[in-house]
Automatic annotation (TrEMBL):
InterPro entries: Rossmann-like_a/b/a_fold (IPR014729), TilS/TtcA_N (IPR011063), tRNA_Ile_lys_synt (IPR012094), tRNA_Ile_lys_synt_N (IPR012795). Ligates lysine onto the cytidine present at position 34 of the AUA codon-specific tRNA(Ile) that contains the anticodon CAU, in an ATP-dependent manner. Cytidine is converted to lysidine, thus changing the amino acid specificity of the tRNA from methionine to isoleucine. CDD domains: TilS_N. It catalyses: cytidine(34) in tRNA(Ile2) + L-lysine + ATP = lysidine(34) in tRNA(Ile2) + AMP + diphosphate + H(+). It comes from the Bacteria. The gene is tilS. Belongs to the tRNA(Ile)-lysidine synthase family. NCBIfam families: lysidine_TilS_N. It comes from Bradyrhizobium yuanmingense. ATP binds at residues 32-37. The N-terminal region contains the highly conserved SGGXDS motif, predicted to be a P-loop motif involved in ATP binding. This is tRNA(Ile)-lysidine synthase. The keyword Transcription regulation does not apply. Keywords: ATP-binding, Cytoplasm, Ligase, Nucleotide-binding, tRNA processing.
Length: 351
């Protein structure tokens, strides 16, 4: 992807990139051996040396057991880490490998193993080397899928997962700058061939990027769009928090059990559509037991719910006018209230 900025990253610039991590007790660097993460390791090592009392750093490589060269690449990272004075661990993904959705399963396993390594090292953060180019690709992938505002916000510089903060200090740095940094430091790196394997969506999309860049849709502009959408998304989240508190206050201490969320239907219906959607999504994800609900399904549920709320008043016998399950949650409308609770466990087939 064309990007005008391809100068090596200076020590000063790196200090700015890592500024928020200075007081962490220890950090784990996720290093695959590709150029981005090798550059992350080199930059972090130089930054650590420049500090009087910086965080401890452990480099971790995950061997997914999917490519024969992976073990050699992990050894190569270990060698380079040792040359930079950093301890290194290789962790292997040993579980059953699924036939479909392999990249997603590998990613899930990778983050689980990285979080585990962080706990072992007493680290508060895991650092990955996602770049501005990765951010642009993520935005495009989600755009093509028709994601909502939250998805189009792409990757955040910091996200928490199981008590460990996932940090992406290079999210606004171009890949070309990282490669220039490695060239200046005379450091070699491996290229993961799956990055170009057009059996996967991301590499196919990556091939389109130069065409978009020629029309002005370069990584810098796309990443800027993601940042602006993230800002708008954060504002809508605050509105949803406020609406949630308001609905709770309307209950005047008449709070239902923790395992049930209940909203006054008329007040709920008066909220903006995006806020209503988020409240439903939050409640379903918190109480359902079948993983996060798909946005499209929550949208369908909401229009059914909206129609039911606006429709003829429920029968006086108190029977629900609507009762539906989604992602392991039971959503009902009865007596002017919306209730969301865990759905009863489904009966197993054959019983
Ligand atoms: N095998 C690995 N071992 C350690 N870290 C890795 C490994 N693979 C990827 N990473 C870390 O994750 C970052 C992103 O890698 P990559 O872009 O290949 O993953 P992705 O699956 O496309 O992204 P994401 O993990 O966010 O979905 C790398 O820069 C590196 O920091």
């Amino acid at each position: 992807m064309s990007d005008d900025d391809d100068s090596p990253i200076s020590a000063r610039e790196a200090r700015r990139l890592f500024a928020g991590l200075r007081d962490a007790p220890a950090l784990v660097l996720a290093v695959s051996g590709g150029p981005d993460s090798v550059a992350l390791m080199w930059l972090a090592a130089r930054w650590q040396r420049s500090l009087a009392r910086g965080p401890q750093i452990t480099v971790v490589t995950i061997d997914h057991g999917l490519r024969p060269e992976a073990a050699r690449e992990a050894r190569e990272v270990k060698r380079l880490a040792a040359a930079l004075g950093l301890p290194h661990r290789t962790l292997r993904w040993r579980g059953e490998k699924p036939k479909t959705g392999l990249p997603a399963a590998a990613r899930e396993a990778r983050y689980r193993l990285l979080a585990q390594a962080a706990r072992t090292a007493g680290a508060s953060h895991v650092l990955t080397a996602h770049t501005r180019d990765d951010q642009a690709e993520t935005l495009l992938m989600r755009l093509f899928r028709g994601s909502g505002l939250a998805g189009l916000s792409a990757m955040a510089p910091f996200t928490e997962r199981d008590g460990i903060v996932l940090a992406r200090p290079l999210l606004d740095v171009s890949k070309s700058q990282l490669i220039a940094t490695l060239r200046r430091a005379r450091i070699g790196f491996a290229e993961d061939p799956t990055n170009r394997d057009t059996a996967f969506t991301r590499p196919r999309l990556r091939a389109l990027l130069p065409l978009l860049a020629a029309e002005g849709g370069d990584a810098r502009n796309l990443a800027r769009l993601a940042a602006r959408l993230a800002r708008a998304n954060a504002a809508v989240e605050v509105l949803a928090d406020g609406a949630e508190r308001f609905l709770r206050l309307r209950d005047r201490g008449d709070a239902p059990q923790a395992s049930v969320r209940s909203f006054e239907a008329a007040t709920f219906a008066a909220l903006p559509e995006e806020v209503r959607l988020r409240l439903l999504l939050r409640a379903i994800n918190a109480l359902g037991h079948e993983g996060p609900a798909e946005l499209g399904k929550v949208e369908t549920l909401m229009s059914v719910l909206d129609r039911a709320i606006a429709g003829p008043v429920a029968a006086a016998n108190g029977r629900p006018v609507l009762k539906q399950t989604l992602a392991g949650a039971l959503i009902s409308l009865a007596g002017g209230r919306i209730q969301i609770a865990p759905a009863p466990a489904r009966r197993r087939k054959g019983r």
